[in-house]
Structure formats: C-alpha cells, structure tokens
Write a structure and sequence with these properties.
The structure holds 3 protein chains of 3 kinds. Chain A is mainly α. Chain A has one domain: ABC transporter involved in vitamin B12 uptake, BtuC. A two-stranded antiparallel ribbon of chain A has the order 1-2. Chain B folds into 2 domains: 125 residues, Rossmann fold (3-Layer(aba) Sandwich); 124 residues, Rossmann fold, CATH 3.40.50. Chain B is α/β, with parallel strands linked by helices. The chains are: A mainly alpha, B alpha/beta, C alpha/beta. Chain C: Pfam families: ABC_tran.
C-alpha cells in the first residue's frame, strides 16, 4: 500500500489545514483528480488494459465477430450485475441471484409445457415469481433486521432445493422439457435471445439489452429521486430514514429489481437453450457480485455506479474468452482468470486511493 | 418500520396482477408442443418378485440436478420395484459426506449397498465396516480400478478410458482431423479420462477446453471463441448431453463447419441426432448401471449369484447412438430412462 | 477540553441577549404536557412539560441516559409517546414517521447529523425532498436548481463551499452540522430540534454552530437545543429544561436561572453535595477545592466532549 500511496499524484499540495479554513472554504480539487474519483474510472482503465493486452496477445480478438462473442458473455453477466450493483450501493447483498435466474427459467418452462400454454404465460408467471422472491428477500430483511447476507443465503439454499425438487416432481426429470415447438416461442426468442447483423458481425440482442439497462440504471441512479435514495439507504440508513427517505420501500424494491434481472437472464437462457437444467446457476451470484465490486461498488454500500459494473462484466467476459482466443494452456484457465481479476481490482483500488486521498 | 406505501393500494395491485394472469391463462393455450403432445407412456416395468422384502441403499456422488444420475436412479428404482426391494437413495458430491451416507446405510442395517467410488480412498474404511456388518456391497459407475481392492462383490460401469478410446476410433471412422474436447468440470477425474482416452486412439489433433458448466451462456460463448480461434476444428466433443446441445449453437454462431459428438444421452439429444445436428453419442447406459447394481444384490441374496463371477466388471458401455439406431433409442430416451 | 472561563462566558452572553419575549399572542409551536415514554416496562421518560415558542431557543439539558434522546424521538416522530400529550399549534398529534413531523414543520438535526458522508453536499442538502422536473416517466432531478439553491442557502448561513460535488464526509464537523441546520431552515422548518450539535466539536467549531443557532432564532424559528454543556446552552438559550432520570428536574426561563445554578443542576446538585460530604468524612480529599456546591464560583466540571 505504501507504494500506491507514494504514487498518488501530488499535483495540488498547497495545504489548507483542515480546521483552520476561513468561512468554510475548501480547496478545489483538480479536474483530473475529480475524474479519477468517479467509481467507474478505475475499472474502465482496468478493462482497457485487459482489452489491449488480449488485442496484442490474441490476433483472433481483433475480428469483429470475436468481440461479439466477448460481449455476449459479458452481457449475460452484466444484465444481472446491474441490479446486483444497485442493491450493493443500497447496502445489501443478494446471494440468491444466481439460482434465482434458474428458478425463473424453470418456472416459465414448466408452466408453459405442463399446462400446454402459450410460452408468454410462462414468461409472465416467471416474472411474478421472480419479483415475489425479491420482495420476500427484502421484506424478510427489513422485517427481521437480519443481515441480507443471511436472509439471501437462506433463499439461495431454499431455491436450490426447490428448483430440483419441483422440477423432478413435475417433469420426472431434472431438466425441463424442450419448449421450442410451442406457441409464442419464436416471438419470445426474438425478444430475449435473437441476434442481428451489424455489418457482417452477428450481435446478440442481450448486448443491446445490457447497454440499454445500463443507461437506464445510470440515469435512475444519478438523475432521479429514487437513485438518490439508493445512495442514501446504502450510505447511512438511519440518517436517510430520519430525513424522510422511504427506506423500506427503497430496499424492498431494490431486491425486486434483482428479481427482475434474474427473470430477464432466466428468460434469455430458456429461449436460447430451449430447456433448463435444474442444477445450474450455483456460484453465478459471486460472479455478479464480483463484477459489481470490480466495477467500483463499495461492498459496504453507499458508493458506486451503474456504468462501472458494465466494465466489470466486460472485463470478466474479456478475460474468460481472451484466454481461449490466446490459446493458453487451458489447465491454467481458472488461475489466469483469478490473477487477471485481482490485478484489475488492484488497479481500481489504486486509482480510487490516489483520487480520494486529500 | 417505515410505512411509506399505502398497504391497500399494494393489495389492489396484487389482485390486479392475479386477475391479469388468470385471463392470460384462460386465453393462451399453446396449440403445439407441450405436455399434451407428450406421450405419457410408462417406464419399463416387469412383474413383481415374491421374495421376502429387502432394503437396499444406493449411495452416489451425484451433484443435485444432474440428468445422468437421475437416469441411474430410475434404473435402480425399476429393479427395486421388480424385486420387492425398498430402495434408499442418497447422494453427496463430497467424498467425506458420501462416506457418511454409507455409514448411515450400515446403521439402518440394510440388506445391501450399491455405491459409486468416485474417490475410492475416502470410501475404503466405511466399506470395510459394511463387510464386518455382513452387508454385501456392489460398485457402480466410478471405481473400475479399485472395486476389487476394496472388496466389493461386483461392479457395473463403463471404463471411462475405454469409452474415450472407442470414441477416438469412431472419430477416425467419420474422418475427423482436429477435435476439441469440452470439459465442463475442471478437475473431474472421469471427464479427464474420457478426453485422455480420445487422445490415445484419435489419429488427428485433440485439445481440451474448460468451460463453466453451471453457466450455459458462458459455455456457449467459450466454445464459440475456441471455434473462432481455431477455424480448422472439425469436431466438438462434449462430455455431457446438455453441453452438446449448447455446442451446436456455438458452431452456428462461430460460422464453423464443425460437427458435434458427445458422451452421454438425453431425450433432446436423440432428436438432434435424428435431425443430424449431432453426429453421434456414446452412452454408458446409466439406467443399466442402476438397474443391474440393485438387481445383482437381489440375486446375491436369493440365489448367491455373482455377475462377472466376482472377478470381472460388468461393462455397461460404450454403446454408440447415431442415425442408424437413434429411432429405437429415442423412444426410451423420451421417457428419461435411457 | 479546558474549563471555560466563566467571566468571558457571561460577557458573551450579555453581548448576545436572549431573543426577546415571545411574540405577543403567539402560542407555543410545540407543547408537551406530561408526556412520557415506556419501552416495555422500562420508563425512559415521564411527565415532561415543554413549550417551544417561535423565535426562542429552548435548551434541554441532561446527563447521559437522562432521556434527552427519547424526548427528541417523540417530537421528531421516530417514536410515539405512551403517556401525556404532544401538541402542535395547540392540536394533539401523534407522529408515526419523521415525515409526518416534517410535514408539520418540525425538523431534526441529529447527533449523527442525519447525513450520508459519501454523498455530495448538494445531494445531502436535498435528500428526502429532492427537486424534480419533467412529467412522470422522465421525471428527473433538477440538479442545476438544487445546486444553486443549496449554494444560496449555505451562503445565507455564512457557509461558502467551492465544490458542492464533494462528499459531505470531507467537510469538517462544524461545517457538516451547519449544512444540516441550513438544510432544515430551508425546508420550512418552524421548529428545529438540534441533538447535541456541539458534542463532538472543538471550541471553534462549536462557536460556528452556536452562531447558526442564533441565526435560526433571528429567522423566527423555534429551536430545541439538546446539549449536556450548560455553557453552550446559556450562550443562546431562552428557556432551560434539565432532565434527570427521565423526569424534568428544572424548567426555568433565562431570567430565573444563572449559569452557575444551571451548571449545578446539570452536575447533579443535591447528589453531588451528598457525595461531597461522604468524601469529607472519608478524609484526605480537599473538598473545598471541589466544584459542585450551589454557590460555587467554578462551574461543575464541564462535561467533556462526548455523546449522550
């Protein structure tokens, strides 16, 4: 840490001792420093570094279609990382996020297939269920005052069991039946899992959704009342309550937002792969949380952005696909991934420290 | 608690949502596919033995939600139903916990135990205890190299290396030159043996590719990336049926001409083989493993028989499924028993 | 913290006279009649009478655990009273949330400042009462207006910040407190409840805050100033209520009580006398040098910086 401290820019050293200021004047921070203090700048630099690294290392990455693959992988992580990040800024965790994706997909598949309904019915029921799971998480947490870590750990284990048991009970198998020949499937697939051509590059629709959601989340976070409340409940819940911020509403709705994300990604998986394995999704929640944290969201809440997790997810996609593109010994895959992510996080940390040190 | 929202309006919203869903359900039946289209044929069933009731424990290293193990279990259940056996199924992927489950079966004083030996070392002690308690133990699926050392009566399974070697030969037959072996769980011994077996007999090049098996989109994009990098790959070898289905999408995305072949089978896969999107599958017949393991315990108790004479394992695979025989297999795969 | 010089204190107090009598005919903004609060079978507050007039500073003093926090929580709507009455403009009320109290013009500046340290100054200023523009689906924060207003309001209170985007946590304690006060004043507070605003501050910073309290009074606000520092209270207070063990020990207008008496009440008065006698009997302690007698020239050991 000493090294990073020394490396901090010493651009404006003229001291204005903390308590001795006249009429409360504080010294102006330089533009560069203020820019660096933005939560997403560190991860942006990290992502650029990783990108350039693989651009040099793996010639295949330079093709447009390869980028599309990287972005696809990033988008499926990124869509979930967004609400998870907002929730984290709001000061809470959701460990059930990974499994909730599968719960949603299983619900849609089973409702449609078993009742021989238009798939949109399943899609809507899955949405209601996903939001309900989110609301339950939030309500339990607010009601009991337990840490969200514990509450959602319970939901995580519970959903895992329910996913398996209900699927087995209903279908007799551990995976859902193929719904690709059912009414409405093509329509739903075009919404959740189609692709389009950009020049001669095939781009997955999830990439578009991801960026749209990210823009929306950024706008909400920085430009609306609700966004203000998210920062406030994460930064200091009691203060927020005292000045009239509806803390309970904000927290529960954030959990429901994660439910919405789980629903969306779940629908993507269902319409991309036609069936869902009930045991999937375990461990994904940590990847979402990692993308959010790499994206500059504070684990303790109250600080972060929606654009940071976009770069976080991109970095994750870039590293995991880049290693394949570079043709490195696959036995080391996980190790590379770990080192890269740690390195990126350190850059992020260093940037934030040098920017906020006053 | 902060009650910023009128609870009544929230309830009204809920009711409205329920009403909308009800309307949708009423008017939105699918005219194709679905449960109605599914043939509700029953699974294999034979008559029932009138031998005295016995209790058999099947203890596997299954991780929750795995299609493969579900089929093993169905085989075991079919045999149990036929033989007037009460089957106690339990599983845990961690070796220590699996050993505890075997101990649990011993404590229940079952009449026989069928166990998988994914990590033989961890099971050694507890199998010894079963022997002391005079409970016959048979092995299935994993542990081909160790079952005799551990004193098991019989073994039903597939030699993963042998299956891999057969797979490699089949690849030679269909004229493959360069293949990629997709491992969906890094560090799994059985999966590694399969790829190694392929490598041994396959005359072309084969490379391993590790993917995150719990995240399908990631599996898809990783295979796509690999195919883009090495455009001369002509065969993708997957080690589990769901991953084969995903691999076919990756092939499309990457604009590659590669064909997909896989280990293991499920009902969607048979459809894909019929359509030709998947070239062939090699099956170790998990149903047979479960069925034979339980049935052999019944035979041992009631007639003193040893399958394989207690010397040789009973191999349940590799059995190839391709266009030539897929129709016959598909019928059973649809029921989730093959 | 050194003991304040009583001479100087008095001088300052005289230079800054009590804000005059309450405007004729105006009833109290907030009044408590025999109010109390029990948590289960623990009685935290009992039989408290208190009146807050516009343009007057009512000081509530008390030791740690005397019930000051409970009193604030009742008035600010965080808790509900279980006995007696709370009246606003002469009408009995029972607040369920701080929002309801806020709607009646009762704003509270908490000891922990009720601010979010990681958020920019202007966002903190408007937190919970954000200015928006545009129709619903695209209703958004009116950032330019909020920044401008926050800057104006802060300047009115004599606080000048160059960068309203800086996180509030980077300001000094006194500045933060002042922002919180300016905020409450701006949002039409008629009654300002200040919970130990000077407790965590140094001498200089405390002075800054006391100045803002006086400024708020000049604007005609009713101020409830909670503190356990009688010196700070006497500098700006018009009426003094001392709480002890959940009940009112003293309620007196400025004209009826001197700083010494106030200090003595704060320090425990009679109890301290008894303690003095005990120590005398035990011997070896030079009790004459000890503060605490009703007529002692020295104020009872000024409570050091701490929290209630």
């Amino acid at each position: 840490m000493d090294v990073t401290q020394q490396a901090a820019p010493a651009a404006d050293t003229p001291p204005a001792s903390g308590t001795g200021q006249r009429d409360g004047r504080t010294r102006q921070r330089s533009l560069a420093l203020r820019l660096l203090a933005r939560p997403e700048v560190g991860v942006f630099l990290g992502a650029v570094a990783v990108f350039v690294f693989f651009l040099v290392q793996a010639p295949t990455v330079r093709q447009g279609s390869s980028m599309a693959t990287v972005l696809y992988q990033a988008s499926t992580i990124g869509i979930m990382a967004l609400p998870v990040a907002l929730l984290m800024i709001g000061g809470e965790f959701d460990l059930s996020a990974g499994v909730a994706v599968i719960s949603s997909a299983l619900t849609a598949a089973m409702i449609s297939f078993q009742l021989t309904m238009n798939v949109w019915v399943g899609v809507l029921v899955a949405l209601v269920l996903s939001l309900a799971v989110g609301a339950f998480n939030g309500w339990m947490m607010v009601r009991t005052g337990l840490p969200s870590f514990l509450v959602t750990l319970g939901t995580f284990l519970g959903l895992q069991g329910v996913n398996l048991a209900v699927t087995k009970l209903v279908t007799g198998n551990v995976a859902t039946d193929d719904i690709s020949d059912m009414d409405g499937f093509d329509q739903a697939k075009s919404v959740f899992s189609s692709s389009f051509h950009l020049g001669d590059v095939q781009v997955k629709i999830t990439v578009v959704w991801w960026l749209v959601f990210a823009a929306l989340a950024t706008w909400v976070l920085l430009r609306t009342k609700y966004g203000n409340w998210i920062f406030a409940v994460g930064g200091n819940k009691d203060s927020a309550r005292a000045v009239g911020v509806p803390v309970t509403f904000t927290k529960i709705s954030l959990f429901m937002l994660v439910g919405f994300g789980a629903w969306f990604v779940g629908m993507h998986q269902l319409f991309a792969f036609n069936t869902v394995q009930s045991g999937e999704g375990v461990g994904q929640e940590l990847i979402y949380i990692a993308a959010a944290v790499i994206g500059g969201c504070l684990l303790t809440g109250g600080y972060g952005s929606a654009i940071g997790p976009v770069f976080g997810a991109f970095m994750f996609g870039m590293v995991s696909q880049g290693i394949v593109f570079a043709g490195w010994n696959p036995d080391w895959f996980k190790a590379f991934l770990g080192v890269m992510l740690l390195g990126a996080t350190l850059i992020n940390l260093w940037v934030r420290q040098s920017a906020t040190r006053r | 608690m902060d009650r910023s929202r009128d609870p009544r309006s929230r309830r009204a919203a809920l009711i409205a949502m329920a009403a909308i869903s009800a309307l949708l359900i009423a008017g939105c039946s699918s005219s194709s596919g679905g449960k109605k289209a599914e043939d509700d044929a029953k699974g294999a069933s034979a008559g029932k033995a009138d031998t005295p009731a016995m209790k058999v424990a099947l203890v596997t290293h299954q991780a929750p939600g795995d299609t493969f193990w579900d089929i093993v279990r169905k085989g075991a259940e079919a045999a149990a139903a036929k033989d007037n056996i009460k089957l106690v199924y339990s599983s845990d992927p961690s070796a220590g916990n699996q050993a505890n489950l075997v101990q649990n079966a011993i404590d229940q004083k079952v009449d026989g135990i069928a166990v998988t030996l994914a990590k033989p070392g961890a099971m050694k002690d507890v199998i010894g205890k079963a022997g002391k308690a005079n409970i016959p133990v048979v092995g299935l699926n994993s542990g081909l190299a160790d079952w005799k050392k551990l004193g098991l009566l019989e073994f039903f399974g597939q030699d993963e290396s042998v299956a891999g070697e057969a797979f490699g030969k089949k690849l030679n037959e269909v004229g493959a030159k360069k293949a990629v072996c997709v491992v969906h769980e890094q560090g799994n011994v059985g999966l590694t043996q399969r790829c190694d077996g392929v490598k041994k007999t396959f005359e072309g090049d084969v490379e391993n590719l590790y993917v995150n098996g719990t995240d399908m989109p990631s599996v898809k994009s990783t295979i796509t990336a690999k195919l883009k990098r090495d455009s001369d790959i002509d065969h993708v070898v997957t080690l589990g049926a769901p991953f084969a289905m995903t691999a076919t999408q990756s092939v499309g995305d990457a604009g590659s001409k590669a064909k997909v072949a896989t280990f293991d089978l499920n009902k969607n896969l048979t459809g894909a083989i019929k359509k030709g999107t998947i070239e062939f599958a090699v099956d170790q017949q998990p149903y047979l493993q479960g069925y034979l393991a339980v049935d052999s315990l019944w035979l041992y108790k009631n007639n003193g028989n040893y399958s394989g004479g207690g010397e040789q394992p009973v191999l349940t695979g590799p059995a190839f499924v391709d266009k030539s025989n897929v129709d016959r297999v598909a019928e059973f795969a649809a029921k989730g028993t093959r | 913290m050194t003991t304040a010089d009583p001479q100087k204190t008095t001088a300052v107090a005289e230079k800054d006279p009590a804000g005059g009598p309450a405007p004729e005919g105006a009833g109290p903004l907030v009044e408590l009649r025999g109010a109390g609060k029990s948590y289960g079978n623990i009685r935290a507050l009992h039989g408290v009478d208190l009146a807050v007039h516009p343009g007057r500073v009512t000081c509530v003093l008390g030791d740690n655990g005397a019930g000051k926090s409970t009193l604030i929580k009742i008035i600010s709507g965080l808790h509900q009273h279980t006995e007696g009455e709370v009246l606003v403009d002469g009408t009995p009320v029972r607040f369920n949330t701080p929002r309801e109290a806020l709607a009646k013009g009762i704003a509270t500046v908490y000891q922990d400042l009720a601010t979010v340290p990681l958020m920019p100054v202007w966002r903190n200023f408007f937190l919970g009462s954000e200015m928006t523009k545009g129709p619903w689906p695209v209703r958004r924060l009116d950032i330019a207006r909020m920044k401008r207003t926050a800057d104006e309001e802060l300047r009115n209170m004599g606080i000048v910040l160059d960068d309203l985007e800086q996180p509030l946590g980077t300001l000094s304690g006194g500045q933060r407190q002042s922002v919180a006060i300016a905020r409450a004043v701006y949002f039409g507070a008629r009654v300002l409840i200040l919970d130990e605003p000077t407790a965590a501050l140094g001498v200089k910073q405390s002075g800054v805050v006391l100045k803002y309290i006086a400024a708020a009074r000049e604007r005609g606000l009713g101020v409830i100033f909670i503190t356990h520092n009688p010196h700070h209270a006497y500098l700006v207070g018009d009426h003094f209520s001392v709480l002890r063990l959940g009940t009112l020990e003293l309620s007196a207008a400025r004209s009826e009580v001197s700083l010494e008496q106030l200090t003595n009440h704060m320090a425990g008065g009679a109890e301290l006398d008894a303690l003095k006698h005990e120590l005398e009997r035990a011997g070896g302690v030079d009790v004459e040098a000890l503060p605490g007698a009703p007529d002692a020239g020295e104020p009872a050991g000024t409570p050091s910086e701490g929290t209630a």
